[in-house]
C-alpha cells in the first residue's frame, strides 16, 4: 500500500515514465515552433501586406501609398512643398484647331482657379501656343476621338480627385453671359451635384426644354406647367409638358442635364465615370442615366439660369468622319450615336435585372 504523500508508478495523474515522455514531446514541440517562428520572421522581415491599401499596393506600407493624382503642373526646380498655386476646379474641352477663336473665348471665362485640359481630336495640339493660357493648359491628343472617349481614359476619379468640380464641355458654346466663378457659387448655393448652364432660348438650338433658360430665378430643376415657351418652340409645348412624362420627377422633365456642357461634383463624377462604357464614345443616353449617381436626383441635378450659354451646334465631328457614298458624314455620326444610346439602355437594363435577381428584389425598387 502506498504511503500517504507518495505516488507509485501507477498512482497520481501519470506515472513517471509518462511524465518524462510528455515533457520530452513538449520540449521538442516548443523548440520546433520557436525555430519555425524565427525562420518565418526572418523570411518576412522585408515583406508587407496591407489588404486595405489600393489595389496593387498591398505590399507597400500605407504611409507611402499615393492612390490619387492630379493635373497640377510642377516646377523643375525648388522645394516641392513650395510649388505654386494649386487649382480647385477642372475644366476640360474636346477641341479642334478650326474652332480656336471660340475656344479662346470660352477658356477666358475660367479663372486661374481652374486647371484647363484640352482634348485635341484633330491632332493639332502644338498649334495653340499663340494663346497665353495655352502655356499652362494640359494638352492631350488622339485623332478622331470624342470627349467621352477622352474622359473615360484620362479623367479617372483618382486623377481628378483634388478638384471640387469637373467641367466636361463641348467647344461650340457661346459664353458671353457666363462666368465660371459665379457659376460655381450658384452650384454650391443650391446644392447641385450635376448641373449645366441654361441654354439661351434665342439660340434656337436645343433638344430638351428643361435646359432652356428662365428669367425668374437662379436655377431650375424640372419642367414646370407655367413655363412659357418662346414662340419658335410652341409646337413642342404639348409634347414636353409634365403630364406627358412617365414621371414628372424623372428625365427629361427633371433630374436631367445634357451631355453638351455638364458639370459634376467630385463625388458625382466618381460614380458617372464608372458608368461610361469604353466602346460607347458619343455619350448619348448618359444624360438620362446621370440621375443614378445622386440622391435625390430631382433635387441634386439642375440647370443654372443666372449663368447661361448659347449652343452654336457646329458639326465639327462630322469633319473627322471618313466619306461614304450613301450617307453624309454628320448622318454617320448620328447613326452611331443612336446605336450607342440603344446599347447603353440595354446594358443598363440588363445590369439592373441581374442585380435584382441576385438580391431577390423587385425591379421597381430601383430608381
Structure notes:
Pfam families: DUF707. The chain crosses the membrane at residues 21-43. Keywords: Membrane, Transmembrane, Transmembrane helix. With 367 residues, this protein is α/β, with parallel strands linked by helices. It contains 9 helices and 9 strands. The N and C termini lie far apart (88 Å). The chain has helices at residues 16-44, 100-107, 147-154, 180-189, 237-240, 266-275, 286-289, 297-300, 329-359; strands spanning 89-95, 114-120, 138-141, 165-169, 173-174, 194-199, 219-220, 263-265, 301-311. 29% of the residues are buried. The longest helix has 31 residues, at 329-359. Residues 1-14 have low confidence and may be disordered. It has a domain at 84-316: Spore Coat Polysaccharide Biosynthesis Protein SpsA, Chain A, CATH 3.90.550.
